Amino acid sequence: MKRIKKGEYGYRNSMRRGRVMKIAVLTLFILAQLGARWFTDSTALKNILTVMAVITVIPAANLASPYIAVFPFKTPSREFYEKLSLYESKFTILYDLVLTTKDDVLPMDAIVVHPTGIYAYCVNKKAKLPRAEKAINEILTAQRLDPNMKITGELSSFEKRVKSLKAASEYEDDGSVEYAVTVMKGLSM
User: With contact defined as beta carbons under 8 Å apart, do 124 and 104 qualify?
Assistant: First the structure.
């Protein structure tokens, strides 16, 4: 099975499956270490096994926290992908990324990275999009990119924006689009 990379359609579901497997394996290690305590009489060995189990909880928790944040958000429908994939020849489109700010989890079903700006469709209805947009634009500024990310929670307005964009090849290529793609992937879980 081919590994799905960040920005490709299906990444969110693939990431969830991978995290569940890793968390399950670590949980089995923790339970095995705690269970091994019952088979020894040495107090020192029991203490070592307990400490090992407690230390094994740390990587399990590090894997579980992003999984819990992403759990409610699944990969968008195949129709959504097929509708947008028609525009991939005109400009770069990233799918299934989950961006986080200090205050919000932003599951982006699609992000269009274009010379005129970065346009994203967020499906989290609880997110405060203006606040999130401001936070991500601050990150873009810190990364020496123009702070021109626009986030919408409405599919119809996102589709209108995508349809209105000209091909990226009509603009001068200064390398900022590729760099912005790298930054967006780096910001994603």
Answer: yes
Q: Using a pLDDT cut of 70, give the percent of the chain over it.
A: 99
For the chain, the domains span 11-70, 78-187
Residue pair 136/99 in contact (Cβ under 8 Å)? The answer is: yes
- pLDDT at position 2, please? 74
Residue pLDDT, tens place only, 115-125? 888 999 999 88
- HSE at residue 5, side-chain half, CA atoms within 13 A, is 6
Look at residue 1 in the predicted model and tell me its pLDDT: 57
Q: What is the DSSP string of 19-30?
A: HHHHHHHHHHHH
Is 70's pLDDT higher than 90?
Answer: no
Q: How many angstroms separate the Cα of 11 from the Cα of each of 69, 146, 172, 176?
A: 15, 27, 31, 24
Per-residue exposure over 139-162, b if at least 16 CB sit within 10 Å of its own CB, e if not = bbeeeebebebebbeeeeebbebb
